[in-house]
Amino acid sequence: MGNPYRKTIVIWSVIAGLTYMALPSWSQWRPKDTEWPTYTADLGGSKYRPLDQINASNFSKLEIAWRFKTDNLGTRPEYKLEGTPLMVNGVIYATAGTRRAVVALEAKTGEMIWMHSVREGLRAAISPRQLSGRGLAFWSDGKGDDRVIYVTTGYRLMELNARNGQVVQTFGKDGTIDLKTGMVTGTGQQIDLEKGEAGLHSAPTVVNDVVIVGSAFKEGMTVPTHNNTKGLVRAFDVKSGKLLWTFHTIPKPGEFGNDTWENGSWATNGNTGVWTQITVDPQLGLVYLPVESPTSDFYGGERPGNNLFGESLVAVDLKTGQRKWHYQIVHHPIWDYDLSSAPLLMDINVNGKPVKAVAVPTKESFLYVFDRVTGQPVWPIEERPVPQSDVPGEKTSPTQPFPTKPPAYARAWLTVPDDLIDFTPEMRAEAIERLKHYRVEGMFTPPVVGDPNKWLGGISMGNATGGTNWPGGGFDPETHTVYVQAANSFVSAVSLRKPPEGFSDIRYVAGREDQPFRVMEGPGFGSAADAQQPGRRGGRGATAPATDGAPAGRGRGAAAAPATEGTPAAGGRGAAGGGGGGAAGGLLIQGLPIVKPPYGVLSAIDLDKGELKWQVPYGETPDNIRLHPALKGKDIPNTGMNGYNGCGVLVTKTLVIIGDTQVTSVTHPRGAMMRAYDKATGKEVGAVWMPAPVSGSPMTYMWQGKQYIIIAVSGGNYAGEYLAYALPDAE
Length: 731
What we know:
Structural class: mainly beta
Radius of gyration: 24 Å
Helix content: under 10%
Number of strands: 42
Largest sheet: 5 strands, antiparallel
């Protein structure tokens, strides 16, 4: 019979062979400042290119140079395109569509050179991480062997010949590594290779001749078992596919941290994957792993202890995968404060002393800064007492870490009444009264059992909906300044309930017992090309249109609210409401966010001093604020918009560039804007119109004397598209 999967690859790889001779010579390839060779521009996560052809004087003159619509890369259009392309030597590489196809495009025109995709059937249809993927990786030996590397929807690692899209047959088995092999539950039970829960939609990280891959799972809000698949990070030889090392994010007996899983709970719990981007310092030989929560997101009664390496930054040896140091950002995680962003590797100067630093933007809106060699905090991080859980069986940590510098760059918690809506005295009074039904005790207010006679939920600002999520931040290596966007008005009310009989072996899951139980499957689930469609376009969680004024939910945790119907997060997972970041329901005041503006902020942080250089509202005032009848005649300064997933920064020689995540129409034709801010002051210096909200971080490159910016847009009724902007030829 042969290899049916190999046949699938051959059948569904489309090769534009006639363009092969037109491609530039690759034998002298080297990463250049004019290219974008990795997902975050470089291995340190900077998202920085020292280009300035596009600057404050001409940004608003940008025009669409070319566009690439992704509708036909799958069985139907995709409405949640999160990708950031690469550009190497005049060729764009990107993933797109409901099959997560890989495309190569001409950098000047966007013309397709080749396309590759696979059909994985049920394996992809039930994958915990669907969508088109956020990106891919590139590798070259500098002698003509050039490869594109990506993770399929069904969690296979594949290598393609960068010239023509053909599978590199010498890599792994016939060009493929089955990443489910070696993924286990319990004390070492191999998961089913078809139906077992494991996936990834971030880009692999390639350094030297090593490719590093993390792992991800379903949302942890209403899961059927705490004994879920265990997270792994693995390194493979980029040429052969040989497994080089494995790092267990849940330590096994004999490994460092195993004792933090009390009562042997390491053996009966899972997750703690690394689902976001991994960064590397090749000179130090260290890999920086941002680790997510253990199973489950909001209840940890089945896993007493601090649960290393849950919600930790871990530095491991590039050659061996051995832990060198770690820092746990949250002890015994039950807030969904996953480390969601690529660690930023910067060389800074603190009090006249050079420091090789690593800085991690977070959902909490704190930037945690460490010496990346030793793991010591650059500025003190204090363990402070925090509120304790009253949920039966739960045992929270008595203290949690709080950075002393830099200060939080957005709201880290809700302060009553100072942070509450204040457009009118009546609105603030209503907000104060509303919050009497919720537990509000700071950043680590624990989840509560949802009970209308006591608490409807525990209030959080970060977790799945606030602060900085997977798009992360960026930095200027010359000025030692971090630039990061943060949502500033998503308020989550996290409540728990006992699951219905037979649904789960976890004692408490997200929800309220006085309301119908709702399974929360997370973003993108059901959107894969071969997923069954339950009567609405695009499947569950990702491709159904969002209400006008707000893009479709984005990123990890965007498709279902932590609180069940009746007390949804304000603008949280799957929020359908419009501007300012609001869902209809319990935490809105007359349809407006319960907190006062700004709703989203863009901040510049001086890492030599550990101080905010500037902070401005991100975007513009949403339509539902401008047009709200209660605010008619009031002079409302720019509120900004609650930019959540998708709106990553791009840093150039003089600008910080970011796209709007909401559609507006009052100041321009209905659509969204890509905006440029002066790096030194935060002043908005230009904007260009986009037909839909941003949904993937922008990138830039220079080719044949012209600078381009590519940005992914999608959401609402607008299917995924890559837009390439450049200045008119006359400029």
